[in-house]
Amino acid sequence: MPTSRGVLAWWLALALSGGAVAALMDAVVLVGTSGVGIATVVAVMLTNLGLSLVVAAPLAPLAAALEARPRLALLAVFVLAATLAWWATDPLARRLSLVYVGVVGVCGVLSTLCVALARLPNRTPAVWLAVGGIGVGAIAADLMVSASIYPELHAVLHVVVAAAAAALGRRYVRAELMEASRQRFLALTLPLLLVTSVHLLTADAWAGQWRSEAATRARYLASLTRALHAIDLDGDGHSALAWGADCDDFDGEVHALAPDPPGGGDSNCNGLDAPAQPTPKQLGLTPTFGAPGPTDAPVDMFVLVTIDTLRADCLAFDHMPRVAALAERGLRMDRMYAAGSTTFVSIPLMFKPTDTAPPVTERLRRRGIAITATGNGAPGLDYPGMGFSALDRTRTCDEAVDKALEAIDRVGDGPHFLWLYCLEPHAPYAPKEPVTPAPAAGCGGAPESTKTLRYRGEVAATDAAVGRLLDGLRNRGRMQRSAVLVTSDHGEAFGENGVWTHARSGIDPVLRVPGVLVGPGTTKAIHRGLTTHRDIPATIAGAFGVLQPGDERFGRSWWRLSSAPDRPLHDFVVARSALYSSGAKPYRSMLILVDDRYKLVAAIEDRTLSLFDMMRDPGEQNDIAGDVVALVEELQRKLALYADVDGYVGWQH
């Protein structure tokens, strides 16, 4: 049986070696990041040391028990390292690819090799160089890959780094402690325990927004907190440890993503019980004005065009001449935000005012309006849930336009709702025609790269296809009686703020999308106010005169702007997104509130808040939440009430 002294010695050895490496590496990353203060760096380093003490506690008895059993110890190290690596990976991804099995195996082998080398009776400098080399190699690989992608790989590399650190620390730290007197042992441990304990209790007070700054940058801290979040006493998938999302770990129905209907108490830990009958202003809406539908002439056809992964800055003559020309004939939304940063969140909310409401397309069908949906869009969408029997699937947007024109001819002059869904701008960006550098910036960011040029090629091809649809409407004499709305499900990031693609960020390149409405009575204008996908169900219903009060629960019909294009529809809008993580929950939920000036980013499960002044800092580089605490609290209350009324229960990818 291991002695208590041996267990304590191993505990401190593991914590000091692993914690020191974690603290040092996160400090290196943070110091090299602009806008991160020294208080954040110190807070992250101390937190790494403190959490390492906690994480090492269950490992110390195992290490002490295996001390005298070398072969069993090596087997245990392999199993432990492989298990940690397997747990850290995304379950869906590891089922889909044997690559993850190989990565987990390599992690186990490298970790075991570190310990085996450290246990050799004659440890030469070459042995220590080999162990150090494995650790340094894992550190280098971790630093070379962006923190915003491949989180599973980062987590697995951290396991290897921890094994190398433990192997190196075994000889020096543990041996020193085993030979030390009780007084010396206490002198070493008590100050460290005291400092880290006080820090963990007071860091939020003296270091301000350090957790928000560290959430997306401090790599080892993320792994340590994720390890502690595995401790879940009530089995609801959330932990109360290490700033976890559970405010009551003894009640499985209380946590940050629990349903929290208005008037039912606070079951989602946001400190708010929303009123049963909130006012429109509380949901970010301005007082109604104007007519919710066209007044100059009736609409007998509504065409909704959704172009997947289209950034707002692509709507320019240099990139999309046909859609840009269309925008000049009607209303163009200058600050339109997607309902979510992925297709499966945003597109359903173009047809339904809330997640649980019936789609407006069902109401149109009951009124005898023909419904057509065609495109090459996402196959996994719940098309029946959006009021379509299915999507008439095609291989390309061009083929979808052909089917759309056939449907127009088939329906004739009767009322018709047509949805065209084009996927081309989505990765992997494979245009048929080569693309030359554009004379204007935007549409993929700068500097230009092969990836952005290919993306622009797909955008240009989609624009040409949409242009063919517009020509078909015009040639058939339908444009005068048709409303055309063009938008995207979300944008795309090309390295801005370290983010690539979409689905895992709240930055504007991901969330801002184009918005165009042209139809009978629409005013030729650029609307500078906030708009959102949540406006589209009311806009569709208003076009055919079937608007119901619930359609404008979270949005406003764009037809209201026909009489006053400069009046705002929203005081603020809300979008859904996520932070990309790993393990059993690869996405951590985020909500983003945007008003006329500020953007509040709330990482729900991390319990962090960031605030950006979009007027002075459109690139979202400087988090000012710590400087304007009262404003953050006000915006947080607005967001919490909105989320409760909206029935938000976390990220659905």
How are the SSEs placed, and which strands pair?
Layout: H1 4-31, H2 38-56, H3 59-65, H4 70-88, H5 91-96, H6 99-118, H7 125-144, H8 151-179, H9 182-206, H10 210-215, H11 219-228, E1 301-307, H12 321-327, E2 331-337, H13 343-346, H14 348-351, H15 360-366, E3 370-375, E4 392-393, H16 397-411, E5 416-422, H17 450-475, E6 482-487, E7 493-494, E8 500-501, H18 508-511, E9 515-518, E10 525-532, H19 536-543, E11 572-580, E12 587-595, E13 598-603, E14 608-613, H20 629-646
Parallel strand pairs: 1-5, 1-6, 2-10, 3-4, 3-5
Antiparallel strand pairs: 2-9, 6-9, 7-8, 11-12, 12-13, 13-14
- The CATH homology group name of the largest domain: Alkaline Phosphatase, subunit A
Quaternary class? single chain
Count of helical regions: 20
Q: Cα distance, first to last residue? A: 48 Å
| Radius of gyration based on Cα positions | 28 Å
CATH top level assignment of the largest domain = Alpha Beta
CATH topology of the largest domain: Alkaline Phosphatase, subunit A
Q: Major sheet: size, sense and barrel closure?
A: 8 strands, mixed
Level-2 CATH architecture of the largest domain: 3-Layer(aba) Sandwich
Question: What low-confidence regions span 5 or more consecutive residues with pLDDT below 50?
Answer: none
Please tally the β strands and state the result.
14
Percent of residues in β-strands: 5-15%
Shape: elongated
